[in-house]
Write a structure and sequence with these properties.
Length: 636
Amino acid sequence: MPFSACMRDCYDTCSMISEVKNGRLVVKGNPRHPITEGFLCPKGALLPKWFHAEDRLKVPLIRAGERGSGKFREASWAEAINLVAQKLRETIDEYGSESVLVYQYAGDRGIVNYAFPLRLFHYLNTAMLDYGICDRAGQEALRDVYGTAVGMDPEELKRQKLIVYWGINAFWTNLHGFMLAKKHSLEIWTVDVVRTETAKRSDKFFQIMPDTDVLFALAVAKLIIENELYDKDFVRENVYGFKEFKNYVIKLDLDFVKRETGLSCEEIEEFAFDFAEKKGVIHIGYGFQRSLGGGEAVRAISILPALVGHRFGFIYDMKTIDKSYAEGAFLRTKPAKRIPQMKLAEYIEKGEIKFLYVYNSNPLASLPNQNRLRRALIENDVFIVTHDIFLTDTALFSDVVLPANTFFERLDIVDSYYHRHVALNEPVAELYGKSNSEVTRLLAKALGIENPHLYESDEEVIQKVLEINNLSWKELKAKGFVKVPEKPRKWETPSGKIEFYSRRATERGLSPFPEYKSPQGNYPLRLLSPTHRMTITSQYHNTYGIIDPSLYMNPDDAEEREICDGDTVEVFNDNGRIKTTVKLSDDVPKGVVLLYKAFWPSLLGWNVNFLTSDETVEKYGNGSAYHSTWVDVRKV
Ligand SMILES: Nc1nc2c(c(=O)[nH]1)N[C@H]1C(S)=C(S)[C@@H](COP(=O)(O)OP(=O)(O)OC[C@H]3O[C@@H](n4cnc5c(=O)[nH]c(N)nc54)[C@H](O)[C@@H]3O)O[C@H]1N2
Ligand SMILES: Nc1nc2c(c(=O)[nH]1)N[C@H]1C(S)=C(S)[C@@H](COP(=O)(O)OP(=O)(O)OC[C@H]3O[C@@H](n4cnc5c(=O)[nH]c(N)nc54)[C@H](O)[C@@H]3O)O[C@H]1N2
Ligand SMILES: [Mo]
């Protein structure tokens, strides 16, 4: 039976075994894969429903009405591809190659299908994205302290006693990781604003006010240092700037920390003493760092495992293989103009983007401040092409829509940003659409490009990537996955040590130590928009239909506004307003409300991103700050 690999933007990157039985796709988890361990998450188990979905795009569409009106006419592949090629050529001739932007993200993480289309845009010297939507601030922060955001191999958890899930709802977003920690009988703690399903299954839960994590982590460091509970030998040998850091944290006033974080002194002490004793490791989440204080928080948190003697005692990112061949940046003849992903609307408003090619992403659901983005697209002359499996909101706003196939319909391989395995994905069945690489080859041909790199087959690209990385095709074929061995490594900081005093941060005009800024907004309630159990950002809303669009609110906040459970309310701020029903819950603290992230606006009439802030964490790579959104709520 063919091996599949779940290509979703998800930590677990499962290896699966698939087949077609009586015309229906059947999937199961690969029992030999050490992370998948033969079971799938609830979303993965429903993949056949996604694959067979009635609403999959079947033929190319060309806009036949006002932008966003949803009026299209059907077209042949030849007509659609020729139109895209002609428009591309015209735009480049009239405005230059940098007026073309390829906008893509991790809708499909297959090495070929993620990267191959970029070859065409590199060849054409177009503008490219500077990715900032997901985990950027934390990436920069970890580089400040460790010189890399690549942490520990999660399979090494078997040697640990304690894992802290800090700002990650692992039971929903990293189920196989959570089960791995359970399997190895680790003690599990959670630090979160919300009493999540992970918090409910943890041995300890520290409920913290938004954006105050930096203070909590610094207070824990202070107590560990003051009480001499840190690993002195490790710190002496491997840490740069310990003395300066010590002088900095020692001044911290614990009463202030208590007031800001909402944690009691006992909780802070309990964390510090127990963490030091058990030499905890920390899974630093992606979710919580998407706020204005996210970068500073990750810097502070990442110091804690080093204090107790871990070389790379955090989980954040994993980079096992070199994938650059698939992307082919070597095809460029001049350096790329990089457009910060979170500033798409701004660049469109400035008239710098005239042609937008979108694949693997649904920015008209997932980007913040949707009213501004949509206005910018309507008011400016931008030709939009979207390649997707479904008629998403982004597709609805496009001039040309190209049907994509799914990973069940092609060959690819995929790595993981969580574990060290590369998985094989073989074609199982064929329904509709074309792959990202196939469309690239058709476009290259229509543009009259002769460069052979644009016509390499998927298998050739895969073979070459495996060869570059010294990985065995034979082993991959036999098991469905291979583990990439870890080489011994040092910290890639200026001092070659773990920098508690970060020189890299000072070069960006930041303090050498993590700093706290009290979060402030011009509306009374902080709006969080974390992940939903049954979606991957905007995906599966249309196919699984299991979503929860309610606003979660603390009963005290509701009482102040005379709102009862089940009431219809308006949630509003300067960016927009939406209407939904309220669920009262003590799981969210007073002062915080919650709407799950990025459903399909075309199905719901709205999503949370009509409210979210498009500010960026400027000093941390212009990372997104979705959670730095303030709103008010009234009964309607
Ligand atoms: N089921 C499911 N799984 C997914 C996804 C999905 O949409 N659904 N998306 C995938 C993607 S793209 C990503 S990036 C990952 C994200 O994976 P996670 O990081 O687990 O995702 P989030 O739910 O966004 O955020 C985690 C938690 O951060 C908390 N949080 C918010 N602000 C703060 C704060 O200031 N401090 C603290 N301590 N906590 C805070 C939220 O309450 C939330 O519970 O998941 C991937 N997996
Ligand atoms: N409010 C709020 N918004 C958020 C977040 C948040 O925490 N709060 N989280 C942010 C995060 S972490 C992320 S990573 C982004 C993700 O945002 P996006 O990158 O927009 O991710 P998805 O919604 O998963 O959209 C992926 C699209 O790719 C399509 N697709 C899947 N497979 C293929 C394929 O093989 N080929 C092609 N051509 N298309 C395919 C899917 O159908 C889907 O429409 O969202 C961000 N948005
Ligand atoms: Mo993400």
